[in-house]
Amino acid sequence: MAVVAGLTRRPLEQVSGLLRRRFHRTAPAALQVTVREAINQGMDEELERDEKVFLLGEEVAQYDGAYKVSRGLWKKYGDKRIIDTPISEMGFAGIAVGAAMAGLRPICEFMTFNFSMQAIDQVINSAAKTYYMSGVAAQHSQCFAAWYGHCPGLKVVSPWSSEDAKGLIKSAIRDNNPVVVLENELMYGVPFELPPEAQSKDFLIPIGKAKIERQGTHVTIVSHSRPVSHCLEAATVLSKEGIECEVINMRTIRPMDIETIEASVMKTSHLVTVEGGWPQFGVGAEICARIMEGPAFNFLDAPVVRVTGADVPMPYAKVLEDNSVPQVKDIIFAIKKTLNM
């Protein structure tokens, strides 16, 4: 019956029905391209589009790159735009930064990115800060705790007081491992009482052990180096409002004394971290992760609050610099936030 019904339609109706049918269209086959070829293609297209673009690096020209990423570009664009450099990452990275400042668009290739550490000053202190700076302070007032603390094989200590400084430097000297001592230049002239035991020639502070500078029951504050002073000052202010803060001086960044922090959080059920470094991937972020992964997480009554430096290159002007690092008021605000006050 269905066939008969179809045959009894008028010719025009049959044509319109045919037009309404949906035909399956085969999608064009995806092109298989290696990552090497894709990068090469991208650079080639940009070199062709803009004469200000050029490529420099070790063996990027006649040898076509160590991994052949720049294959064929030297033959196409010549010596002026595809430039082989000496094995001096600091040198040619600086050339790239300077060229970019002059209006060109350099592609700076390291033979392997592991070699980029040879040029880290150019990448961080020149390239990253250029738009923000006015010509000074590129290498000043930075916190490198998270940078060095990230690296296996290093021990990293960050003293706050005179007691910390003496005990940790002596322990670092005696340690058979490489130890990075992060001394805050603003603390050099600050006087502290040195207890009798610290005056001994045999006085040492064990690396990897934090110190509770102030006992408290309502909130745990974890910090290191100069911000410890601000934390203690904030704790004194808040004690007048009935808030008792437990202040932990980390002393060591790596290996981190997470046990002391966990024990305090289990007691106070609140945590605030304070550091002078930038917020992304910082010491406070690592503490948050450790707490979340460990037994103390179930004791928290509120999310952890981080107090960090501003997410900008450190400015040179004193007023701007003061407002780019944690102040007492910032710590007080964070504590009241986690306590929902």
Automatic annotation (TrEMBL):
Residues 33-190 form the Transketolase-like pyrimidine-binding domain. Keywords: Carbohydrate metabolism, Glucose metabolism, Oxidoreductase, Pyruvate, Thiamine pyrophosphate. Pfam families: Transket_pyr, Transketolase_C. It comes from the Eukaryota. Its EC number is 1.2.4.1. The keyword Oxidoreductase applies. Gene3D superfamilies: 3.40.50.920, 3.40.50.970. Transmembrane segments: none annotated. It catalyses: N(6)-[(R)-lipoyl]-L-lysyl-[protein] + pyruvate + H(+) = N(6)-[(R)-S(8)-acetyldihydrolipoyl]-L-lysyl-[protein] + CO2. CDD domains: TPP_PYR_E1-PDHc-beta_like (cd07036). One of its GO terms (biological process) is pyruvate decarboxylation to acetyl-CoA. Its cofactor is thiamine diphosphate. GO terms for cellular component: mitochondrion; nucleoplasm; pyruvate dehydrogenase complex. Heterotetramer of two PDHA1 and two PDHB subunits. The heterotetramer interacts with DLAT, and is part of the multimeric pyruvate dehydrogenase complex that contains multiple copies of pyruvate dehydrogenase (E1), dihydrolipoamide acetyltransferase (DLAT, E2) and lipoamide dehydrogenase (DLD, E3). These subunits are bound to an inner core composed of about 48 DLAT and 12 PDHX molecules. Interacts with DLAT. The pyruvate dehydrogenase complex catalyzes the overall conversion of pyruvate to acetyl-CoA and CO2. This is Pyruvate dehydrogenase E1 component subunit beta. It comes from Phocoena sinus (Vaquita).
